[in-house]
Amino acid sequence: MKPTELRTVSVIIPAYTLARWELLSDAVARLQSQTRLPDEIILCIDHNPELYDLCLREPVFCHGPVPVRILHDESHRSESALDLHKRAHGTRRRFGAGSARNAAARTAAGDLLFFQDDDAAADPNWIATIVDIYDDPSIVAVGGAPLPRYETARPRWFPFEFDWVFGCAYRGLPTFTAPARHLIGANLTVRHSAFDAVGGFHSVDFDDLDLCLRLAAAYPGHYLMYEPRAVVYHHVPADRVSWQYFWRRPYYVNKAKVEAFTSMGGAANLAAELHFVTHAITRGTLLELKDVLRGDPYAFARMGAMLLGIGLAGVGHVAGRIEQYWRVAPSYN
Question: Which of 269, 318, 255, 296 has its CA nearest to residue 159?
Fold first, then answer.
């Protein structure tokens, strides 16, 4: 496909709860005032008729400069999928966002699919910053930086390497435009043709990771690019910067990843995880020691929390392996 043909953009936002109504409204309003407007905005509401009806009546959604289409995703969810999300996130969310995103993508007309979350507000230049990158035909996906927008103050003990815990860009990602192995779902774009070629999102709770690894496997010699100048501001509620949430996430996410990687077959690899650990232990520790020398007493706490998080991630991975072994181990009775 010629680069000049890649100029139509469909922005897709999954939503599932009325608790984020103001954030969702702001997300759509920000898209309606982009310096490069999208060609369409698609809201996909997951199992929430009340939210769906409210969206249909919202003037900002009905009368803005960009058409907004509102869908209602009612696809089946198993109890096991809900329990998986609860263990990883602490809530029984109705979906890993991949299902609602898939439903919207099936109706999208754009050559490029832009995915953001219902609690993320795009910078005015978000779309304009990303679109031109696709002039290079070797690039199949581009991700930007979801930056935190805190409901409360950020705890000074919270390690910057673990901002992925609340779905944001973290220390260790490139600070300039560069290839990446894993893009973050709150700020993720992909060629529509490539998205369809790999069957869209497969995973219930690791939809962005799953998509990125499948794209990398399906398109050797092509690139997934990270563009830190393409920013969305991702809401971080108070409970996500709590100690209880912090320790749960590395353990349960990495435990559940074992099954997710198994389902990816040959596309699966741990390169991004190993790079994260290596960078955190080396570069991350060095930066915190420098902060200690500058007189920041919380640097010790951040360093300790970072190392604990890495340890919990490793324990979670081992626990996932053991659980998987006993699930598939042959019976000799």
Answer: 296
Task: Pinpoint the alpha helices (H) of 78-228.
Answer: 79-89, 98-105, 126-131, 192-197, 207-218
Measured over all CA atoms, what is the biggest interatomic distance in the chain, rounded to whole angstroms? 67
What Å distances lie between residue 137 and 123, 181, 221, 253, CA to CA? 25, 18, 11, 34
Dist CA 255 CA 327 (whole Å): 14
The three state secondary structure string of 313-326 is HHHHHHHHHHHHHH
- Any idea what DSSP says for residue 32? T
Q: What is the CATH number of the domain that holds 31?
A: 3.90.550.10
Residue 142 is assigned to a structural domain of this protein? yes
Tens digits of residue pLDDT in 104-115: 999 999 999 999
Work out the average pLDDT over 277-302.
95
Within a domain: 196: yes
Residue 57 lies in a domain: yes
**Mean local confidence (pLDDT), 294-316:** 96
* Closest to 172 measured CA to CA, from 187, 162, 158, 185: 162
Residues in contact with 151: Cβ distance below 8 Å, sequence separation at least 6, in sequence order: 235, 236, 237, 238
Calculate Rg over the CA atoms of the chain: 20
Contact 194, 112 (CB under 8 A): no
Residue with tokens 């009368």: 63
| Per-residue pLDDT tens over the stretch 29-82 | 999 999 999 999 999 998 899 999 999 998 878 888 998 999 998 776 544 555
| pTM: predicted TM-score of the whole model, two decimal places | 0.90
Report how far apart, in Å, the C-alpha atoms of 17 and of each of 48, 93, 194, 205, 211 are: 7, 9, 30, 17, 24
Q: Which residues of 176-209 are buried (b: 16+ CB within 10 A; e: fewer)?
A: eeeebbbbbbbbbbbbbebbeebebbbbbbbbbb
What percent of the chain has pLDDT above 70? Answer: 90
